[in-house]
Fold each of these.
Amino acid sequence: MFKSFYRNYLHEFMEALRGLDVGTQEKIMNELESARQEGRQVFVIGNGGSAASSAHWACDFGKGINVGESKRLRVFSLIDNVALGTALSNDITYDEVFTEQLKNYLNPGDVIIGLSVSGNSENVVRALAYGKKHGARTISIIGNARGRMAELADIPLVVESGNYGIVEDIHMFIAHVISQYMRRQSAKAAN
């Protein structure tokens, strides 16, 4: 029984990987590289497993892409400050937990990356809408339901699956491919 489930999951995962638009991933990488070169900030947001992935993205792009004295990317996961997140959620509403933080930090030209399976996470949708209104570049990486995040993103990347595990697995696959490529480019520039 488990072996059958495993094979089916692996098959769906591989199909979703094969369906990823490499050109869109390259656009995301170019946006992140431009932000790094220009000193613009990048904010990564999500809920649940996507929140954990946003923290992982901030780690990989905040540390993992750097070689020696390479230019640094100013990247932050807005889920990481538990005290602030719970204060905003309790005193205002969880729907505004990311938007309220962006009001403190966002500058025109900064980048917001929203991770979601449904594409309809209200707090991420509101943060992307706020970002667009205030001159941010917006990216969404979402499952095949697309949701409102697809419309709000300057660069939407759709993972052709509705399985939350597969979409979240691919959130990390994308982060690792792009961050490792950027690290390789940093190493070349350092030599």
Amino acid sequence: MSGKAEEKMEAEKEEAEVVSKGDFILVELTGRVEETGEVFETTDEETAKKSGIYSENEVYGPRLIVVGEGWVLRGLDKRLEGVKIGEETEIEIPPEEAFGERDPRNIRMVPYRVLRSKGITPRIGESVEVDGRTAVVRSVGAGRVQLDFNHPLAGRRIVYKVKVLKRLEGDEERIRALIGRRFPGVDPESFGLKLLKKRVRITMPEEVFFADNIQLAKRAVALDIQRFLPDIEAVEFIEVIKRR
């Protein structure tokens, strides 16, 4: 093999080992505030518990991301391109590409009685919902309450520790990942899957028959499949109820 051919193969190999726009990838990540080290997001259960952000309603583990689709912060999404698969890396994101800059126009003084009339007892540092918007109570006094409607992390520089575990290649692998995204906590392997010419047949496991919003989840899976696999024209769902 000539030197040029070897160089070409090596270049293609290196290109194959980095993330590109449109890739389906499974990612472990932890996001923290650069100035304080505060962890605000993680896919790792133990990290969540140690950081005081653990939630029983959260499903921890590697997260599916389709690069460029806006499933994560804009600044993180575009910086995933070029990341090496299998290597842990840190990605820094400026405020304007994370949660935005702080805007003084989003800070309001509201009469205390107005909040009490809405059933809200304001306490400094707590989050409250006013007219459909979430705000943090910054101060309470003299019959007035200062509410900050900026995102709590606005103006902060963010650092993500990221490890891309793998890139999903085949249609079946991608479809199972899309199913897992819409049915969190359910093993995607428990779904029967058959790829036909221009359709996909999905057999639902019994454990999801009575899940909340199952019809919405099925519709979301179908739309995801048709969006990312344009050759698929129809998605069929089968529910089999067996005699006990």
Amino acid sequence: MTLALHGFAVSNYYNKVKLALLEKGVPFEEVYTATGSTDPAVRAASPLAKIPFVRLEDGRTLCESSVIVEWIEATHPQPALLPADAYEAAKVRELATFVDWHLEMTARQLYGMAFFGQPALSESNLARIRRDLESRIQAFRQLARFSPYIAGEAFTLADCAAWVSLPLVSMATKAAYGEDLLAAGGLDLKPYMALVGSRPSAQKVAADRKAASAAAAKKA
């Protein structure tokens, strides 16, 4: 039985895990699973019916993307996606947490109107989200190195989070506010996105995401 990655290829958190698996060379199969499924087997693996989750070779399951990539690192330590030094490894985790919780989850409040045709948020909500994002972008800038990767010279778990999520922050803010708040905050992501995008793992993730997006658009 091969490790199974459940979710769908348009999801950034799914692709965060997929990127780590590909970087590690871990064999896995992809199992399409929608968010919010009522399937008892899905609920048993992911009680909130969130994706991604993984079903291990022995049938056990793990949910939450950060937990999954930590498990991948612990069970498949080479090539390393965390530094050997405990402090530097913690700094990588710090950056990944900032991307997931302080940037992406804040910008996610804009996704309905930005990507899914939902009504615009109120002016007060838009203003609140903008203030939060602007302050958090500056906090992220204080931590991120971009030399050339997020945490320094090596590709790490922080890049698995950043490469799949930062473009969504850019696109959502441009749709909501008429400007990319990451760029306005002094973050030029183009060189970084191109650097990571040249990796075979990222090319695979990008191609699958594009195909899945096209299929979803055609179905809609």
Amino acid sequence: MKLSIELSCESSMEWIETVMGDFNSFLQDHANCERKASAMAMSFVAKYPDRVEIIPELIDTAVEELEHFRSVYQLMEQRGVQLPAEISQDMYVKRLIDHCHSGRTERFLDRLLFASIIECRGAERFKLVADHLEEPLLKKFYKTLWTSEAKHGNIFVKMALNYFDEDRVYKRLNELNEIEGKVLQSLPLKAALH
């Protein structure tokens, strides 16, 4: 059984050109995204403490995302790039969350599935970044992140399958995947992960 999904659309070449044209801004945004991903995993633990089957994996994911943040921050230090003074709202994530159902159980499913899709999108984009970087250490770093994010895409679907019927999970995953593609294509290009 496949635990993730083929994204409904590919990131554009214009996006990767924008990132390569302002890589320091991309690093700042990437660091923020890793912090938010860690916090998101822990928010599942806080909001759903009764879902004990998935808490260990959520904690592991949160720790791994925080380690990614540390690695990105170390790259930023080497390049003399500071963290931004504040974390701006991620319009991509906000628009996705706007499509979540409102009931507690339905929202839990949607948030897990969007987490999977977001991780799959991150994997796709980290691969593009790795493919377009020339500096060997940076290239290796983003290749490592690409494989890690792809694994996270699987984890969240697997978590959902603990609580929901397979047909329901994949039907909703396909619906949310189509929404993600439309949201992604509607956003202005910027040197950011989303």
